[in-house]
Write a structure and sequence with these properties.
Elements (H helix, E strand, L loop, with lengths): L2 E3 L7 E5 L5 E12 L4 E7 L12 E8 L2 E5 L4 H19 L1
Antiparallel strand pairs: 1-3, 2-3, 3-4, 4-5, 5-6
Length: 96
Amino acid sequence: MGVENLNVEDYKYIDLVNENGEKERVEILLVFEIKEFNKEYFIYTKNERDEDDNVLLYSSGIAEKDGAFHTAKIETDEEWEVIKGLIKQIVRQEGD
C-alpha cells in the first residue's frame, strides 16, 4: 500500500471539537495519505498516559466540508491495518 507522508510541521498542534462542543488541543504526530483509498489521515495524541505510562495515540480520517477540515471515521479493516502499522512504527521510533 502506498502511504505518502504530508508535512506534519504545518499541523503540529490543532484544536479538535469534541461531542460536547468543547475544543481540545491535540498534537499531530503524522499526517499521511493512503493512495489506494484516496483518503488522508492523521495520528495524534492528547498527551494522556495509560496505566503503564504509555502515551495514548489516536487516529482519524480527514474530510473537507465547506472549506474547513473535519475528522472522518476510519471505515474499513484495510484502512485500520495500515494505520496500526504506522502507529507501531511511531512507537518503535520513540523507543529508540
